[in-house]
Amino acid sequence: MARLAKMRKRIFEVIELSDGNDKVSRFYDVVMMCAIVISLIPLAFKEINTLFLAIDYVTAAIFVIDYLLRFITADYKLGKVWEDRKTNKSSGGG
């Protein structure tokens, strides 16, 4: 079970905490930015062809996987939010 938690933590670090020194995180960010830009290409044309359909399917799959990874690791982000709120309340803020 600890191995799964460790893997989820690493996934969270890659998709949420972009560290300039983390090559995997940087690669993930570049892939996601490219997917976003490439997904816009079919929208620039009126006709539909197999290339544009392939682009739509592939980029949609990438976005679904990204969403699922974020959903799977959401408790790490929520934990950080809750910790920030607790710290804020105890220090008299918010």
Characterization of the model:
Helix 1 (2-15) packs across helix 3 and helix 2 crosses helix 3 (50-72). Helix content is 77%, strand content 0%. It is built from 4 helices and no strands. The protein is mainly α and 94 residues long. The mean pLDDT is 85.
Number of strand elements = 0
- Rg from Cα: 18 Å
* Biggest pleated-sheet summary: none
Distance between the termini: 37 Å
Strand residue content: under 5%
Mean pLDDT: 85
| Count of helical stretches | 4
Brief account:
With 94 residues, the protein is mainly alpha-helical.
Strand and helix map with partners:
Layout: H1 2-15, H2 23-40, H3 50-72, H4 74-90
Labels describing this entry:
single chain, 0% strand, 94 residues
